[in-house]
């Protein structure tokens, strides 16, 4: 019997895998061939679709921060592009054959990894991009993928879930509380147990996707299938940026996802970029006998044209919101921590990620605080 203390096994570095292009399937956070079913208050930060099936059931209690496509032309084309992407992933030159090896405890560098039958994840798999944000990881799994309860995929060294691809020959099952990362492409079905989360996408070519109180987030790889405006020109008033939100002490205006767009060429359609956002927090409440610690604070987002906000605590999603008030109450967790908000807008304003750091000394609990809305968008 192996000793429990054998924590990590490093796999030697190999050539990075080739890029896998999802094309029109990229906007979908969940795309199935037959049906998508949901139980409980799941959150999908991306588009939801099914084709050639039509069944999307149980989403009355869920939050879908994206368009919904039930066997329309968009979903049909996405399935064709998914088939191509699946084939590209399956055809990668293999860096290492991991058949019969549990992924838990491994530290893998960029490359393509093969399993000639099923694959299992028990514990933590670490993917190290070695400070290359473009590094690709591909997993070729001939049959099923299964994760144990509270297993996780950890990304380090500038790795991103957008560049991690799981090509699964049959079905994938994520255990209760699993924290998964990457684009999960299954030929048959995908099933998530209660409270499993995915940073990436769930894409099933033929079968069903089943969700139970899950959070699926592809906002870090944000793209949209929405068609551009048909008009070749827009009213002049739509091109003028709105006034900036007033500066408030302690606010964090965040950072955009890219550099400002260049002025459009003559005759080119102008898309409104009127979105603004500012994040403020109330003065921290000092704990009795511990004035240097923060017992809690309320973080409030205000601005124009806000479409959705995804909140994270130390990188883990804790809430998604699609209407005002965009407000979160944070109770303290001992030590130093970071709360982030990923904000997307209703117009062409680039998405922004805002950050608040804090130090506290109490048990943590994040929950929305309800009250009168001050949202002006």
Automatic annotation (TrEMBL):
Q: Does the keyword Signal apply?
A: yes
The entry sums up its family as follows: Belongs to the ice-binding protein family.
Among its keywords, does the record have Signal? yes
- Compositionally biased region (Low complexity): 225-267
The species is Solirubrobacter deserti
Q: Where is this region: Disordered?
A: 225-270
Tell me the first and last residues of the signal peptide: 1-17
Tree of life domain? Bacteria
Q: Which UniProt keywords apply?
A: Signal
UniProt name for this protein: Ice-binding family protein
